[in-house]
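Researcher: Here's a chain I'd like modeled. Treat it as a single chain, no partners, no ligands.
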Amino acid sequence: MSAVATTLAARWRGAATGVLTATLSLVAHTAGGGALPSGSAAALLAIVAATLGALAATMPSAATASGLFLLLTSGQVLGHFLLDAVGHQHASGPTSTGMIVAHVAAVFAGAALIAAATRLIDALSRAVHAVTAAVRPPVCTRPFGAVRSADQPLRSALALAASVSHRGPPVGRAR
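Model: Modeled as a single isolated chain. Structure tokens:
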């Protein structure tokens, strides 16, 4: 796998992890009976999601489904505590079993989908590289510039020879 493909897959994995972290936290808490968080709660949730996305893009262990599961789970726990800390309450009281089951199921599905997408990006980039690597322009082995040997002298050499005077002082006067 090329370095460009690795970087591309890692960036997409990080973006997907960050977006899924924020989306799952928002959906779960609004489904729990509360309104969408605004102001500082939304900003803090965005910071948590961006941090987990950056970790998913830079950690080698995040390329596996289990590594993604751990990152997404920590994102849900952090998001839940963060929204509870800023005063976002559920209408149904404390965290219900149904909400926990929904979070875990969504985290499993999200981790599996992101890991599958990472493998798909790797396979597609290898296929594109194989197709484009076979079609390369011919490489010139001779350096560009003047040719060293020719049947005719160069025009510049002829002009220089014609401009040089071969006349000099008489032999007797030069002594």
